[in-house]
Each structure stands twice: as structure tokens, then as C-alpha cells.
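Marked as duplicate of an earlier ticket. Keeping the data here for the record.
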Amino acid sequence: MRDFTKYLIFLFICQLALFGCKKDEGKNNGRDPSQPVVISDFSPKAGAVRTRLYIYGTNLGDDISKIKVSIGDRELRIIGVSGDKIYCIVPKQTGSGEVKVVINGDDGAPVAEHIFSEGFTYVSKISVGTLVGKVDEYGNSAVINGTFEQAGFNDPTWMLFEPNTNSLFVVERDKLVRRVLINERQVSTLITNGQASFKALQTATMSFDNDTLFIVDDNGQNNKNFVAIAYTLRSENFRRVHPYLYDRTSYACAHHPVDHVMFFNTWWGGALMKAFYDPAIGGLNSRELFRVGGNNDFKTTIFFHPSGNYAYFLESGCVYKSNYNWAKKELSSPIVFAGQPGFTGDIDAIGTSARFSFLYQGVFVKNPAYAGKADEYDFYMCDVNNHSIRVLSPTGEVATYAGKGSPSSDGKKEGYIDGDLRKEARFNQPSGIAYDEERKILYISEKTNRRIRTISVE
């Protein structure tokens, strides 16, 4: 009996010792205080934003709050640690530099500090990010002005970049025009339906000196009694709205970059109109030049090449090209340049072999690879229902530039994911696109995600 009692006492003492060891182990954040902390290597040695960086060693612990990893002076986000491995993510704007690891004890003092002799090489790459906008857990948003953290959009379908103030004009179709001040990280409402007798705001264009913003209205009329195009001036901070042209329902306009002639479309017959000064009425009048795509009722959008030599018309799944007659100061009847009228799909190919879903806004971007050639610009377009950004070369080659990444078993193309242009990034009905030539940033507005996204070098 005494032997059994001794045995129980022995077991009790062992349990106390084991409990004490566990307490000590927890207190040291999973590290064995009797053993040294060894930091031995990291990989990969080079990478871009969102690269998964691993730090290897022994006795590293299990508390990420006690670990700091930095590249140069840029601290990385620690995702996890498992005793022999630390898992980090390389953030934006990291840069190349030395890799430093610090592991602290409970008192905050370092128990291990290591700088690797070989540094990390940051590789810049073009990727998709998010500038501003948010939705709730049900995917809903609202028109909210304020800081980027507060601001919300409802239907951001069209965009223009204004370089003088590094800002964006965002048209929320049928409702209003917003302004996004990028440097100040502020969003405000400039213009709403009701101003200048607007019925349903559609699209906008800037004069090529960026001092005048023209806004197009769907007034719902087949007469010239209502404003079809209005304008607002930089000198008035783009807040006072003035009538520019009284005409039938319109959906888009374009200002010639050299001759400053205004062209616009109208619903009836998909007509392309030219504005001109008419002394008989003492103001602007218009006349029809031709009908895009036959005699169908179209909501064509119009985009001038920076040289003024030609314009593209986007209509559903088709790109038309119209050359500019410099003598007459008029656009000529267009030809089908890419895609096919009446056909939709998702095919990268040349000219009429290519297929699109629904093209809405596009923008010309200079391509350094074309330097010295007759045309140095590619044309980037929002392919709304294919949830992607497509690019059209001067010779008619169509390619998918961004979107439809992160392939999944459901076969869907849409989503909200930032990252690599094709491997990761997803959009949901991108419809507006603008370009900052100085900073080489494309801005994308999304109808369904209700956000302003970016495509830029990171």
C-alpha cells in the first residue's frame, strides 16, 4: 500500500513538472528557451508584389505578433509561423533591399535578430489594384461622398481622367457626375439630373485642352426642343452647367482634337451627327453624316485618335473605324474594323474574326514598341459582359489584356480579385476606362463591383 501511495505521489510530481514545462513553453511563444533561435535562409530571392516569402530556421516560435520581417525599410505582413518557417507577403512599393528578421521575447526585447547577406530583389510588374469604392456583405452600395474610406458608388459606368488636378470624372449613368480627387483621396458629386434640364446623364468627354467638360443627355425626345449636350468649365470648378446643343436623344459625343468640331450620335437609326454654327438660328445646329451599322437604333460610343486622323465607334460587339476628312472637317462612313455586327463571343483574333460581348468605353494608349511607326497607339476597351479589358492594335489585332484570372471550377469569368493581369485579376462588368499618361495608370470603373480599379506598375 505504501508503495502504491509513493507511486501516486510520483505521478503527481511528474504531472506538476509537465504542467510547468508547458507553462514555460507557452510563455516562450512555442520556443524552447534552452535552445538557440536559428534563422538560416529565405526564399524566393526575387519577386513582385504579393510574393509569398518564406523565412527558414529552427525554434522560431508560433506567435506572429513577436516577429518582424522587413525588406529595406518596408515591413512585411506575417501570415503564419510554424517553428521552422515564417510565411510573409511582399506588399506594394517594397523595393529591393536587405532582408531583416527580428524575433522578440515576452518583454519586447529581441531574442534573435538576423540580416541576410543576400538581399531580396523586388521585380516591378503590371497588376490590377483597387483605388476606391466598396460594397456591403450583400454586394450593395450607395452614392456616398467623402474620403476614399467612406465613399461609395452606385453605377459608375463612364470615366475621364483630368491631368491638371490628377482627378477622375465618373458618370453614374442616368443619375449624376462624380469627381474623384486622387491626391486628396476625396470623392464628391458635381452634377445631377435636373441641372440644365438633364433627364438621364449618359457619357461625357473633355475638350483637348482639358478646360471644358461636355456631358451628354438621353432626353428621350425625337425633336430639338431639349438639351442633348451641355458643358461645364474649369474656371467655374466644373459646377455650373450650360446648354451647348439642343437636339434629339444622344448617348455619346467626341470633340475633334485639332479642329475642335463636335460629333455626337443619336438613337434614331444610329445616326452620327456633326454640330455646326447655324447663322439662321444664331447658334449650334446639327446634321446627319451617316448611320453606323445600317439603319438600326444604336447607342454608339465615339473615340478620336489623338492625331485626329480617325475615330473608333463601339457598338455592342463591334468596332467600326471612320477616317477623318481634313478638308471637309467631317468623319467618313465607317468600316467594320474588329468583331462582326450581330455576333458576340470571346475570341482574340485579327479583325472581323475577333469576338466581343458588349463594348462600351475605350481609350488610346501610346505603345513604346510602335515608336517611329505611322500609328503609335493601342486602343484599350471595356468588354463589359466578358468581364475583361481588351486591347486593339493599329493593325486590328485583338487580345485580352486583363481579367478572367483565378480560374475556378464554376467556369465564371467575373469576380473581384486584385493581382496579376491574367493569372489572378477579376472584374465584374467593367464599363468605364481612362488613362493617366504621365503616371502610366489605367483606371477602370465597374458597374457591378461598384469600384474604381487601377492597372499600373507595382
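See parent ticket for discussion. The chain has a mean pLDDT of 90.
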